[in-house]
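Progress note, sequence design subtask.
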C-alpha cells in the first residue's frame, strides 16, 4: 500500500511531432516516487471555491449511498495542482465493510482510451508511428475494408482508414454491443466482436473482416477504434500493449495500481457495483489474452490523478516528462466537423468536439467546463477532466453503469456551481 498525504495542426506542429532525433526518442529516465501521494491539499476558498457549495456534492453522494443507489464512490476536485475536495463515500461493494478510499481499485473502462492514446503519441514523437499513415501500414488486413449499406450489402471502402481516425473515433468502426438489435450490430456479434480469447493482434484481424458503418474520416461513431489502436501500438512499439503502457506511462508516473488485470492479493481493494452486470463487471484478477485498449484498465483515484496532473502539466508531472507540450496540444485539436458529428452516433454533446483520445469543450456557453477542457469517462461512471481555462481538474470513481450520465451532469453542476472566482 502507498503512503498517503504529504500534505487544425499547422505544418510546423506536425513537423515537430514527427521529428525523430535523440531527444524525441528518449523515454523518461526517471520515475515519480509511488510512495509520495499525488494528492496535495489546497485551501478551497483560497483557490476560488465556496466550501459550502462543495458540500452539496458531499451531501448528494452521501444520499445516493444511503438510498442504496450506489455502494460507494470517490470524488476528487482540484485547481492549480492542489486538491480542494477529495472524499470517499460508502463502501467498496454490497455486503462489504471496507470504505471507499483513494486506494480503492475501480474498473475504469473507457478511461483506458486516453492512456493508450498517450502511449501512441510517445511513439509518434519517436517517429515509430505516423498519425496520417493508413492503419494498413501496421496491420495489413486493414487494406481492404468494406462499408455497410442500408440494404444490408457492403461495398469496398473508397478511402483508407488512417491511424488518427482510430484515435478520433472517425474510423468507421463501431461498438456493436451498444446497438445489439441493429442489423450491423448483429453482424458484428456473429463476427466475433465480443471475443476476449485472442491477443490484440489476432483480435484486430477479426474486426478487419467486419463491415464499417461509414467511410473512414466521414462520421464519428464511438467504437472499437482504440482496441485496434492497441494492436497498432504493439506493432509500432514492438512489445505487448501492457508492457508499453508500463514502460511509457504508468511506470514513469508511479501508477503502481493501474493495470489490465490485478493480482489476487489486491482483491480486498476491488470496488463492486450495487447492481450487478455480468457483461460489464468482469473479475479484475482473471486475465484474458485480450488486453482491451478501449476499456481494459483498472485503477485508483490516486493513481489516475497522476495521469491527470501530467496532462494538466502540459505532459509533465513532478519533473517526469511523458509528452512534449506540442504533442499534447496536437491531441487537443478537434478532429471533427459539424458534418462528421451529425453523421455518427453517441457523440459527446452540444458544444463539443473530439481530438486524439479526448472529448473537447469547444463552446462553454453550452457546456459547464471551460472551453478547451479535455476529458473522457467510462461506462461504469468513472470520469476525469482537465480544464485549462479555469485550471480545474477532477477525478470521479464509481461502479454504476446505469447512472453514468447522471453523474456527469451532477459533477459539472456541483463543481462549477462551487467555483465562484
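Output:
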Amino acid at each position: 500500500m502507498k503512503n498517503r498525504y504529504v500534505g487544425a495542426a499547422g505544418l510546423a506542429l506536425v513537423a515537430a511531432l514527427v521529428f525523430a532525433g535523440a531527444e524525441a526518442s528518449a523515454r523518461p529516465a526517471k520515475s515519480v516516487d509511488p510512495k509520495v501521494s499525488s494528492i496535495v491539499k489546497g485551501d478551497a476558498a483560497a483557490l476560488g471555491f465556496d466550501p459550502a457549495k462543495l458540500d452539496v456534492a458531499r451531501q448528494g453522494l452521501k444520499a445516493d449511498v444511503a438510498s442504496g443507489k450506489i455502494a460507494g464512490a470517490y470524488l476528487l476536485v482540484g485547481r492549480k495542482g492542489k486538491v480542494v475536495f477529495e472524499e470517499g463515500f460508502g463502501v467498496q461493494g454490497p455486503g462489504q465493510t471496507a470504505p471507499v478510499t483513494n486506494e480503492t481499485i475501480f474498473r475504469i473502462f473507457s478511461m483506458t482510451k486516453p492512456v493508450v492514446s498517450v502511449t501512441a503519441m510517445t511513439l509518434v514523437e519517436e517517429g515509430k508511428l505516423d498519425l496520417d499513415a493508413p492503419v494498413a501500414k501496421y496491420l495489413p488486413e486493414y487494406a481492404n475494408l468494406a462499408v455497410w449499406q442500408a440494404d444490408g450489402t457492403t461495398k469496398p471502402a473508397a478511402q483508407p482508414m488512417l491511424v488518427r481516425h482510430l484515435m478520433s473515433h472517425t474510423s468507421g468502426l463501431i461498438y456493436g454491443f451498444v446497438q445489439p438489435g441493429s442489423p450491423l450490430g448483429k453482424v458484428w456479434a456473429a463476427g466475433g466482436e465480443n471475443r476476449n480469447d485472442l491477443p490484440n493482434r489476432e483480435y484486430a484481424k477479426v474486426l478487419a473482416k467486419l463491415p464499417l458503418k461509414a467511410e473512414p474520416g466521414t462520421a464519428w461513431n464511438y467504437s472499437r477504434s482504440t482496441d485496434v489502436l492497441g494492436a497498432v501500438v504493439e506493432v509500432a512499439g514492438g512489445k505487448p500493449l501492457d508492457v508499453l503502457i508500463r514502460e511509457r506511462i504508468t511506470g514513469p508516473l508511479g501508477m503502481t495500481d493501474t493495470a489490465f488485470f490485478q493480482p489476487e492479493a489486491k482483491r480486498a481493494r476491488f470496488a463492486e457495483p450495487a447492481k450487478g452486470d455480468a457483461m460489464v463487471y468482469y473479475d479484475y484478477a482473471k486475465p484474458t489474452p485480450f488486453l482491451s485498449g478501449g476499456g481494459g484498465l483498472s485503477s485508483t483515484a490516486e493513481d489516475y490523478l497522476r495521469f491527470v496532473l501530467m496532462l494538466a502539466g502540459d505532459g509533465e508531472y513532478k519533473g517526469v516528462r511523458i509528452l512534449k507540450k506540442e504533442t499534447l496540444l496536437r491531441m487537443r485539436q478537434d478532429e471533427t466537423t459539424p458534418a462528421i458529428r451529425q453523421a455518427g452516433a453517441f457523440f459527446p454533446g452540444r458544444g463539443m468536439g473530439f481530438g486524439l483520445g479526448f472529448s473537447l469543450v469547444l463552446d462553454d456557453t453550452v457546456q459547464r467546463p471551460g472551453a478547451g477542457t479535455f476529458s473522457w469517462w467510462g461506462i461504469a461512471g468513472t470520469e476525469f477532466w482537465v480544464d485549462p481555462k479555469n485550471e480545474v481538474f477532477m477525478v470521479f470513481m464509481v461502479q454504476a453503469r446505469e447512472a453514468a450520465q447522471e453523474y456527469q451532469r451532477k459533477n459539472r453542476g456541483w463543481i462549477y456551481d462551487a467555483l465562484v472566482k
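Residues 1-25 have pLDDT under 50 and may be disordered. Work on this subtask will continue into the next period as scheduled.
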